[in-house]
Amino acid sequence: MARNFYPAPLQKVIRGLSRWPGIGEKTATRLALYLLRAADTEVTELAQALIDLKAKIRLCSRCFAFADQELCPICADPGRNNGQLVVVADPGDLIALERVGFFQGAYHVLGGLISPLDNVGPRDLHISELLSRLHSEAIEEVILALNPSLEGEATTAYLAQELQGKPVKVTRIAYGLPMGGDLKYADQQTIKESLRHRVRA
């Protein structure tokens, strides 16, 4: 792509967009040219939305999902069954489960998976906060919904050991999910069945 033929401001936008996941230089160029032709109001609204995204989105103080207030909408919903708690690796996995519309309990987002190769250990995740919730909330079942990868399996095994002896039922989602798969990209029926047929961890 002969990017040098573009004016500097356009090159800067193309470079910025091409750093985003799944967007190569060709797609970035196409998007940048679209923005150049778009109405000023559309571009301004998008720019403001991106600024608000960084300024206003934070992590829920209870479950560590995305929120724009202290509690996310799920934690603030009095209609949820807080006796069941699904543990996921990141907010994207939570969103995938919510899209199915099957689970009506609470969540806890770890913020990643145990990965020695990436220098991520248990202390780098929200595991201590999970254990604290078991003492402060009336949780009856913890459902481990982590990706079936080496890191996911290691984290599941660690959590199962940490939760052993606690007065809660510990289960894990069933394997309709392929080994090495990613929960957030699974289809809704697969996620629903993996929750329905969960097994003891």
Task: Describe, in plain words, how this protein is organized in 3D.
The chain is an alpha/beta fold and 201 residues long. It folds into two domains: 3-56, Helicase, Ruva Protein, domain 3, CATH 1.10.8; 79-200, 3-Layer(aba) Sandwich (Dna Topoisomerase Vi A Subunit, Chain: A, domain 2), CATH 3.40.1360. Helices cover 42% and strands 13% of the residues. The chain has seven helices and seven strands, in the order αααβββαβαβαβαβ. Strands 4-3-5-6-7 form a five-stranded mixed beta sheet. Strand 1 and strand 2 (66-67) form a beta hairpin. Helix 4 packs across helix 7 (188-196). The longest helix has 17 residues, at 40-56. The relative contact order is 0.10.
Features:
two-stranded antiparallel ribbon; about 200 residues; alpha/beta; Dna Topoisomerase Vi A Subunit, Chain: A, domain 2; elongated; Helicase, Ruva Protein, domain 3
Radius of gyration: 21 Å
| N-to-C CA distance | 51 Å
Oligomeric state, counting identical vs distinct chains: single chain
Please give the largest β-sheet. 5 strands, mixed
CATH secondary-structure class of the largest domain: Alpha Beta
Strand order of the largest sheet: 4-3-5-6-7
Structural class: alpha/beta
Approximate strand percentage: 5-15%
- Number of β-strand runs: 7
Number of domains: 2
Percent helix range = 40-55%
Mean pLDDT: 90
DSSP summary: helix tally: 7
Residue ranges: pLDDT <50 for 5 or more in a row? none
